[in-house]
Amino acid sequence: MYKQWSKFVAKWESDPARYMFDTVKIKDGYIKNLNHYFKHTKVMTDKAVNEKPVRAIVESDKGNKYVFVGYVDTEYTDEDGNLVLVDYKTSSKSSFSKAKLPEKSMQLRLYAMAEHQVHGIPYDKIKARFDMAKYCTVHFKQENGKWKTSVQERYQWVEKMRKKLETKLKKTDLDPITIEEMIDTACANNDMDNLPEDIREQFYIENYFIEIDINEDDIKELNKHIGNKCDEIVALEDIEDLEGYLSYTYPYDPDNYYDKKLCAYHTSDYFKKRENLVDDLPPEENLDEDTAWLFGGEMDKQQDDETDEIMNMLFG
């Protein structure tokens, strides 16, 4: 899997039209994290199904039904007979906080609804999780002998264990200089292969998952929410100037990550042409009274002054 990922990165880096990260630091961290993920994640060749198509039917309060078709990133049955639905994420875990999780998990819960509707699988036998590829769960043994976990970015997980390594290695017969050199090497390689076996045995890593609770009550609420939202979307088709309505109600925000990076419309040639038309308009000083107010020119300022004067007369 790592070889395939490496080929993909090489192809991406050679593409002049490739997606560009905001900074080199973000790009390097992203690639290093995924390099580590693909090196250390085991591939389930016998049990897993990737990109499995599923179909769910939702119904609104008005009785309107809508069909959704999606693709589960990975689906498999675990040793306890549970159907496990996995969605892979490379974004930061801060976007999946407890407060944001209900919205973020709608897609996975919709997949669970689909499997229940089509195959009759009870909700208590369906598990759903986000596989957060950017992170790993570090298990480490405390001084009291108990194990504890810490979630860290993959590309620097050993560095984050530096102090714990120092504490453990100081209890050995190694001299301080050797200890420092060993830890520096481990951090540089982002593994503990050079450390004594009894130290290595006190650390191990696993994929970091965010588990999603699947239950019938939440699924019913989801069904209602999506169905009613579909009714609202369909109702928009009755608006005569739909494009104008959407442009006014949902204006393009260049500071919004979705608008800037993900929204297909705002990255389309059609949108860019519209933006160019606005840029090509004549300077505001050449506009007449009927159009100047649209662009915040002197006419606009004059109207504001007149409005202020009237308001002062009326309300003192």
Record keyword descriptors for this entry.
single chain; 316 residues; alpha+beta; 2 domains; six-stranded mixed β-sheet; 13 helices; 20% strand; globular
Outline:
By secondary structure, the protein is of the alpha+beta class. The protein has helices spanning 2-13, 24-40, 101-104, 106-119, 162-169, 176-189, 197-200, 216-235, 242-249, 257-262, 269-279, 289-292, 298-315, and strands spanning 49-59, 65-77, 83-89, 126-141, 147-153, 203-212. The chain starts with a helix and ends with a helix.
Topology of helices and strands:
Elements: H1 2-13, H2 24-40, E1 49-59, E2 65-77, E3 83-89, H3 101-104, H4 106-119, E4 126-141, E5 147-153, H5 162-169, H6 176-189, H7 197-200, E6 203-212, H8 216-235, H9 242-249, H10 257-262, H11 269-279, H12 289-292, H13 298-315
Parallel strand pairs: 3-4
Antiparallel strand pairs: 1-2, 2-3, 4-5, 4-6
Helix pairs in contact: 1-2, 5-6
Number of domains: 2
Work out the strand percent.
15-25%
Kindly report the average pLDDT value.
85
Q: Please give the oligomerization state of what you see.
A: single chain
GO molecular function: ATP binding; DNA binding; helicase activity; hydrolase activity
Pfam family, one: PDDEXK_1
Protein name: PD-(D/E)XK endonuclease-like domain-containing protein
Keywords: ATP-binding, DNA damage, DNA repair, DNA-binding, Helicase, Hydrolase, Nucleotide-binding
